[in-house]
Design brief:
This protein is an alpha/beta fold and 330 residues long. 36% of the residues lie in helices and 15% in strands. It has one domain: Aldolase class I (TIM Barrel), CATH 3.20.20. The structure holds iron/sulfur cluster. Iron/sulfur cluster binds next to loops. Catalyzes the conversion of dethiobiotin (DTB) to biotin by the insertion of a sulfur atom into dethiobiotin via a radical-based mechanism.
Length: 330
C-alpha cells in the first residue's frame, strides 16, 4: 500500500465498519510490512511542571479551572530531570518525553527547556517535549538544541473540538504542528477516545491526522481516564473494542507511524493489550505515571512483554522505511 494523505472520511469509515477480525488481519499484515514484528518502542514521560494550567481541556486534571485535587508543582530542576532520564534509559526506554502544563512556553522558560533538551540528548536518548503551543522561533530553537519530537495532540475531531476545549482553537493546534514540521522536528500527534464523542468524530480525528502533509511519526491513541472534579468525570466509558478498532484504522491509514498506547492503558487487561498490539500499536509509555495519571508500571510491562514474546526496540528505529522524505505522499 502506498503512503497516502488523501484519505476520504468515507474510506476511513469503511475500514471501521469491517468485521473486527478482518480489520485486525489487514492492520497486522500492513504493520509487518513497515515495522519489525514483535517489537515495541518504549518511551517514558516526565512532568516538568505540573498543574495550574490556564487552558480548559475538559478531561485534564491539570487545568486550573477544575477542582481535581491535583497537587501543582513548579518547574522541576534540570538536574532532577537528568536523573529521571538516566533511570529511564537504564530501564530500556529509547525516548524521554518531558511535559509542562502551559498554554505555551514563555520566553523566560526557553533557556530552561533548551538546557534540558541538550542534557537529555547527551545521554543518548531521543528527546520529546510537550509544552503547549509553539511559535516558529521556539520550534526552531528546540530543534537546534537537539529536540527530536514535539507532541501536540489534536484531541478529537474538528466538529467535536469545541465540546472539549474553548481556550485555543483547532486551527491553533494545526498552526503549532506546522511550526514544528517547518523547524524539522518530528511530530507526535494523536487524540483521545472516550470523550463522549461519536464514531464519526473518531473518523474525523483520524482523517485530520492522516491528511496532514506528512503523517505524524508518532500517533498516540489515548483512552480517556475520567478524573473526579473535571467536567468529563462521569462520561460514559467507551467500549475497549472501539478503541482497538481506532488503533487498527490508524495503522491502516498511517502505516509508517508509530501508534502509541498512552493514557488509559493501565485499565487494560493483558489480553486487551495483546489485541491492541495485534491491531498495530507498537509504542507505549512505560512507568508508574503518565504526567499525572496512573500508568501500567514497568514491572507489569516487562512481565507482559515476556508473556507475549515482545522485545523492546533499541534507540535506533526498526522502521523499515526510515526516510522522512519517503513519508511524503504521492
Ligand atoms: S491538556 Fe495540557 S493544555 Fe489542556 S489543561 Fe491539561 S495541561 Fe493544560
Amino acid at each position: 500500500m502506498k503512503i497516502r494523505n488523501d484519505w476520504s472520511r468515507a474510506e476511513i469509515q469503511a475500514f471501521y465498519e469491517q468485521p473486527l477480525l478482518d480489520l485486525l488481519f489487514q492492520a497486522h499484515q500492513l504493520h509487518r510490512q513497515y515495522f519489525a514484528a514483535n517489537t515495541i518502542q518504549v518511551s517514558t514521560l516526565l512532568s516538568i511542571k505540573t498543574g495550574k494550567c490556564p487552558e480548559d481541556c475538559k478531561y485534564c486534571s491539570q487545568s486550573a479551572r477544575y477542582d481535581s485535587k491535583l497537587e501543582a508543582e513548579k518547574r522541576i530542576a534540570v538536574e532532577k530531570v537528568i536523573q529521571e532520564a538516566q533511570k529511564s534509559k537504564a530501564s530500556g526506554a529509547s525516548r524521554f518525553c518531558m511535559g509542562a502544563a502551559w498554554r505555551n512556553p514563555h520566553e523566560r522558560d526557553m533557556p530552561y527547556v533548551l538546557d534540558m533538551v541538550r542534557e537529555v540528548k547527551a545521554l543518548g536518548l531521543e528527546t520529546c517535549m510537550t509544552l503547549g503551543m509553539l511559535n516558529a522561533s521556539q520550534a526552531e530553537r528546540l530543534k537546534e538544541a537537539g529536540l527530536d519530537y514535539y507532541n501536540h495532540n489534536l484531541d478529537t475531531s474538528r466538529e467535536y473540538y469545541s465540546h472539549i476545549i474553548s481556550t485555543r482553537t483547532f486551527d491553533d493546534r494545526l498552526d503549532t504542528l506546522d511550526h514544528v514540521r517547518q523547524a524539522g522536528l518530528k511530530v507526535c500527534s494523536g487524540g483521545i477516545v472516550g470523550l463522549g464523542e461519536s464514531r464519526e468524530d473518531r473518523i474525523g480525528l483520524l482523517h485530520e491526522l492522516a491528511t496532514l502533509p506528512l503523517h505524524p511519526e508518532s500517533v498516540p491513541i489515548n483512552m480517556l481516564v475520567p478524573i473526579e472534579g473535571t467536567p468529563l468525570a462521569q462520561v460514559e466509558k467507551l467500549d475497549v473494542i472501539e478503541w482497538i478498532r481506532t488503533i487498527a484504522v490508524a495503522r491502516l491509514i498511517m502505516p509508517q507511524s508509530y501508534i502509541r498506547l498512552s493514557a488509559g492503558r493501565e485499565a487494560l487487561t493483558d489480553s486487551d493489550q495483546a489485541l491492541a498490539f495485534m491491531a498495530g500499536a507498537n509504542s507505549i509509555f512505560s512507568g508508574e505515571k503518565l504526567l499525572t495519571t496512573a500508568n501500567a508500571g514497568e514491572n507489569r510491562d516487562h512481565a507482559l512483554f515476556q508473556k507475549l514474546g515482545l522485545s523492546i526496540e533499541a534507540s535506533k528505529p526498526s522502521i523499515k522505511q526510515l526516510s522522512v522524505d519517503a513519508m511524503l505522499t504521492v
